[in-house]
């Protein structure tokens, strides 16, 4: 296998894009435009230092989730001609986001040791093909539970923006697609090319893989990145199956350090904040669904509806049944 920063044949950085049915246009556009602006001086759009193609098994237009269509620019090429293959996903309600020929091509690329990247829900496509099992996967907090349900034996997290190694990459989507593309530009082309692309895109600085997704429970104001990460992880484990020591380890702290951080930033212990996160999820379920009380209780980590009702009442001043009836009236 070639070195991670060596282009095939020693030439330009070459990337092939595979767009799923109902793909996310913004993630694709930010990724490819970062390459375009890094490839040439200022905004000339020449393919001097990088090249890219939209690969597909047919030349049929591919419709994005917003309705805009993109035409493939190439049939499937020898994957060894590419530095990366980037799979851009989108809506999860499409049973067949790509065809079987595309899946076969991705498996052939993996066998050829070509790095594969899943952007947005492109990670689901790679995982469904059996290509993410032994790699850490980064997904959006929005899709974390769906990924866990479909691929329970995969290593996945939803607190970071993206993850990239020599074999696989994954990205939460949205603006983080530009951050991942910038890291690839910096690795394969130069810091100057990365800076040129970001300045034209009006992005002050690319975020790193260790940066935290901009998501937190609405009842807590915080700026500390480790606290933000801990809160996202709590939201992704409202079934209460994550111990505080494990939570601390997941953000690179000891239990004592995590306790101190929460006391300083929130004036509460991690356990109490975790309970509040679970109860806030219960409130949303009470407002947005007609699920029986026992189902909601179990989903947010209580063994029975009675205990759930008691804790809910103590926290919010009324039982969940009254809260639901007032919301519906």
Automatic annotation (TrEMBL):
Keyword DNA-binding assigned: yes
The protein's name: GlxA family transcriptional regulator
Keywords: DNA-binding, Transcription, Transcription regulation
The keyword Translocase is annotated on this UniProt entry: no
Domain of life: Bacteria
Family annotation (SMART domains): HTH_ARAC (SM00342)
GO molecular function annotations of the record: DNA-binding transcription factor activity; sequence-specific DNA binding
PROSITE patterns: HTH_ARAC_FAMILY_2
HTH araC/xylS-type domain location: 228-326
